[in-house]
Amino acid sequence: MRHLNSGSKLGKQPDHRRAVLRSLVTNLLEHGRITTTLTRAKAARPVAEKMITLGKRDTLQSRRQAASYIMLPAVTQKLFSEIAPKFADRAGGYTRIIHAGNRVGDNAKVAILELIGYEFKLKEKKEKPKKEEEAEVKS
Question: Pairing state of beta strands 95-102 and 33-37?
Answer without folding.
Answer: unpaired
